[in-house]
Amino acid sequence: MNNTTPNPILILGGTGKTGRRLAERLTAQGLPVRIGSRSGTPRFDWEVPATWGLAMQGVSAVYISYYPDLAVPGAAEVIGAFARLAVQNGINRLVLLSGRGEVEAQRSEEMLKASGADWTILRCAWFSQNFSEGFLVESLAEGEVALPVGNVGEPFIDADDIADVAIAVLTEPGHVGQLYELTGPRLLSFADAVAEIGKAAGRDIRFVRISHDEFTAAVAAHDLPPEFAWLLNELFTEVLDGRNETLTDGVQRVLGRQPRDFSTYATETAASRIWSN
Ligand SMILES: NC(=O)c1ccc[n+]([C@@H]2O[C@H](COP(=O)([O-])OP(=O)(O)OC[C@H]3O[C@@H](n4cnc5c(N)ncnc54)[C@H](OP(=O)(O)O)[C@@H]3O)[C@@H](O)[C@H]2O)c1
Question: What sign has the CA pseudo-torsion 129, 238, 194, 140?
């Protein structure tokens, strides 16, 4: 008798913003998944390469969401090492979650390609969910967001769209060797985004532009690690300099539909009262 149960798809960052949504979608379609994270079984830790081999044993494909961020120097070497190990273990199908306009993220993409894998790259804009599942949620609930960023437009993308694209490229043919640049349908400044969230939440939430030094001091006052301040400063100063102020058609190319608008995200998320005081 043939064993028809497919091998699981390993989802790195499988409890995070995009990974959790991808795992839910695959499971709903009856497809087996393995969560790759420090809380997964077996445990997967980017900082402990000895955990990688066991986590990838017997899987058919890997969705690679790196932590903390592909913008961190050295991320490309880690992605390269992981991808080569996967290929050595006979796992060729690798899908990388990447970021737009980031030197180290684009180096990571090249490392993935050089590994010999059947690759697909999802090069994404800032996630809308950074406002509800990331570092901004607390300040929004407190009623004031202070960031070292001015009037730069960012085409925020909804993590639900990324998960829809990810399941399509992992389960349908025709996506090997493709790079999809994924943005939302509209450019918003951070001040615009905060204003939309305030409107959806039915309360006044202020946006204040601060200097990098003020931001670094604020991060330190919250007892967050200095690397975190470095990363955010890098993202706000280097990457949010206008280089990503364009819309792309990646979501349409894969899904044949428009990406979700930020206002839909804000309205739906506000209903959970996460931004209420
Ligand atoms: N956020 C954005 O706007 C954005 C935009 C473009 C690209 N990206 C890229 O997307 C990737 C994910 O970013 P994100 O903000 O969405 O984070 P996220 O997926 O929400 O991060 C959390 C996930 O990472 C896991 N994790 C944490 N530390 C880990 C470790 N040492 N080893 C293995 N897993 C670990 C967590 O599980 P455990 O706690 O169980 O380990 C959890 O599943 C990054 O590489 C980033 O460059 C993000």
Answer: positive
Q: Is 254 helix (H, G, I), strand (E, B) or coil?
A: helix
- From ligand 1's centre to the CA of 251, what distance in Å? 21
pTM: 0.97
How many angstroms separate the alpha carbon of residue 58 from the centre of ligand 1?
Answer: 23
Provide the sign of the torsion angle of the four alpha carbons 203, 209, 212, 217, taken in this order: negative
The predicted-structure confidence for 100-157, as pLDDT tens digits, reads as follows 999 999 999 999 999 999 999 999 999 999 999 988 999 999 999 999 999 999 999 9
Q: How far apart are CA 195 and CA 44, in angstroms?
A: 38
* Six token digits for residue 212: 């990098």
Nearest C-alpha neighbor of 155 from the set 26, 271, 249, 14? 249
Per-residue DSSP letter, 258: P
Which of 43, 46, 56, 44 lies closest to 76 in space, CA to CA? 46
Query: What's the gap in Å between 174 CA and the centre of ligand 1?
Result: 27
Strand partners for 196: none
Token couple for 206: 């202020």
Quick check: CB of 126 below 6 Å from ligand 1? yes
Q: Specify the amino acid at residue 122.
A: L
If you search the block for the tokens 């798809």, which residue do you land on? 9
Query: Tokens in use for 7?
Result: 């091998």
